[in-house]
Amino acid sequence: MTPTHFSFTTAFILGLMGVAFHRTHLLSALLCLEGMMLSLFIALSVWSFQMGVTNFTPAPMMLLAFSACEASAGLALLVATARTHGTDRLQNLNLLQC
Amino acid sequence: MNPYVLSILLISLGLGTTLTFMSSHWLLAWMGLEINTLAIIPLMAQKHHPRAVEATTKYFLIQATAAAMILFAASTNAWICGQWDINQMSHPLTSAMTMTALALKIGLAPLHLWLPEVLQGITLTTGLILSTWQKLAPLALIIQTANNTHPFLLTTLALCSTLVGGWGGLNQTQLRKILAYSSIAHLGWMILVSQMAPQMTIIALITYIVMTTAAFLMLNNINSTKIITLASAWTKAPALTALTCLVLLSLGGLPPLTGFMPKWLIIQELANQGLAATATIIALTALLSLYFYLRLTHALTLTLSPQITNATTPWRTPNKQPTLALSLFTIMATCLLPITPTIFTLMT
């Protein structure tokens, strides 16, 4: 395992654990998702750079575009949640459990 | 919703699934999954009540996490083996991680807790899309990666799903939650044979889609989301109520109906592979599901609603809803068992 591989793996797993275990605010979950996406961006760009696959160089850009769309959808949902529930705390999302 | 926006969203839904179907590269498959997720979010949140927004938020968080995990597993595989092909994900760690992420995406048992809540918060039509069309793309990926996955993981996921799907539905009074648990149980049956006989998975998926579509369209037609409103369904549509029982029993898998076909073929396949213990367990867990379908049937036919209908019965007034798809799917959900050999030959 190269140092680059180790660093993006650690970054991704930290982000994933942030989503899974730190469940207070919706905004922090969205930030963790964005951190996961950025670690994937590093993974893809360094992979194409190290392997010398020039065909693959647009892929990190596409990943970034999709993650931007996803982040904007997440922020829109954050606004919608704040309007309907009054707060962005994940504890308040409890209307559907029974 | 504006029809232009609606058509764009529906086309995007189709585009995402098709992109995942035809891709052999993990990045393209991931893009298809993302397009699918992003296209259904406005459909889920179109009614601005708190429950819909909450369901959409939960769905978004789960799907985004699962998609990121899939891409992470694929890029790790590329770093280790230098391979982006879906069929050749050979490293055991990455294939297990992909399967876990796909299980999270479609709601298999240890990762299923979001599905009943999300389905409870949205309308029946969007719920129909969510429980049929949205399962296609992840299941296509599951069928392609199942060859390289450890069988123990698949069997555990499948048995947990059928058990939890049967058990969780027992205590529910909300029809959409019951349908969500039924979806979990059926997906368990599909995953169980995805490695040894992928064509059985496809047959089970097709019959599940037909039966669930019929059930959702019927509930939409009589406009009921709770068991108690089922008891007065006969005042709205007597013939439809009689057929709803058959569709529900077909979902439960009783012999003269379509739902028996996938269970029969899958158990036969398991017996051929010498997995008698697995076949016994999965057949017994199907009984748990059958119990709550029987409860729904009982509420539909044998109970009388406590409200007294003072007005003339509503079935006298003409029903303006379109019924072509409903009748088609109902017939397919009840009468397809005799052509099992044809379907089997077409698939294999």
TrEMBL record, chain A:
Function field: Core subunit of the mitochondrial membrane respiratory chain NADH dehydrogenase (Complex I) which catalyzes electron transfer from NADH through the respiratory chain, using ubiquinone as an electron acceptor. Part of the enzyme membrane arm which is embedded in the lipid bilayer and involved in proton translocation.
Origin species: Coilia nasus (Japanese grenadier anchovy)
GO biological process, one term: ATP synthesis coupled electron transport
Reaction catalysis annotation: a ubiquinone + NADH + 5 H(+)(in) = a ubiquinol + NAD(+) + 4 H(+)(out)
Taxonomic superkingdom: Eukaryota
Family membership noted in the UniProt record: Belongs to the complex I subunit 4L family.
Pfam families in the record: Oxidored_q2 (PF00420)
InterPro entries: NADH_UbQ_OxRdtase_chain4L/K (IPR001133), NUOK/Mnh_C1-like (IPR039428)
GO CC annotations, alphabetized: mitochondrial inner membrane; NADH dehydrogenase complex; respiratory chain complex; transmembrane transporter complex
Subcellular location: Mitochondrion inner membrane; Mitochondrion membrane
Main location as per UniProt: mitochondrion
Transmembrane portions of the chain: 6-22, 29-49, 61-80
Topological relation to the membrane, as annotated: Multi-pass membrane protein
Keyword list, A-Z: Electron transport, Membrane, Mitochondrion, Mitochondrion inner membrane, NAD, Respiratory chain, Translocase, Transmembrane, Transmembrane helix, Transport, Ubiquinone
GO MF annotation terms: NADH dehydrogenase (ubiquinone) activity; oxidoreductase activity, acting on NAD(P)H
Protein name: NADH-ubiquinone oxidoreductase chain 4L
Enzyme Commission no: 7.1.1.2
UniProtKB/TrEMBL annotation, chain B:
Ranges for domain NADH:quinone oxidoreductase/Mrp antiporter transmembrane: 23-288
Membrane topology: Multi-pass membrane protein
Protein family according to the UniProt entry: Belongs to the complex I subunit 2 family.
Stretches assigned to the NADH dehydrogenase subunit 2 C-terminal domain: 290-343
UniProt-recorded Gene Ontology molecular function terms: NADH dehydrogenase (ubiquinone) activity
Domain of life, per lineage: Eukaryota
Keywords on record: Electron transport, Membrane, Mitochondrion, Mitochondrion inner membrane, NAD, Respiratory chain, Translocase, Transmembrane, Transmembrane helix, Transport, Ubiquinone
Official protein name in the record: NADH-ubiquinone oxidoreductase chain 2
InterPro entries assigned to the protein according to its UniProt record, in alphabetical order: Complex_I_Subunit_2 (IPR050175), NADH_DH_su2_C (IPR010933), NADH_UbQ_OxRdtase_chain2 (IPR003917), ND/Mrp_TM (IPR001750)
Catalyzed reactions per annotation: a ubiquinone + NADH + 5 H(+)(in) = a ubiquinol + NAD(+) + 4 H(+)(out)
Any one biological process term the GO annotation gives: mitochondrial electron transport, NADH to ubiquinone
Ranges that cross the membrane: 57-80, 92-115, 152-171, 178-196, 202-222, 234-254, 274-294, 324-347
EC number(s) stated in the UniProt entry for this protein: 7.1.1.2
Compartments, record wording: Mitochondrion inner membrane
Predominant localisation class: mitochondrion
Pfam families: NADH_dehy_S2_C (PF06444), Proton_antipo_M (PF00361)
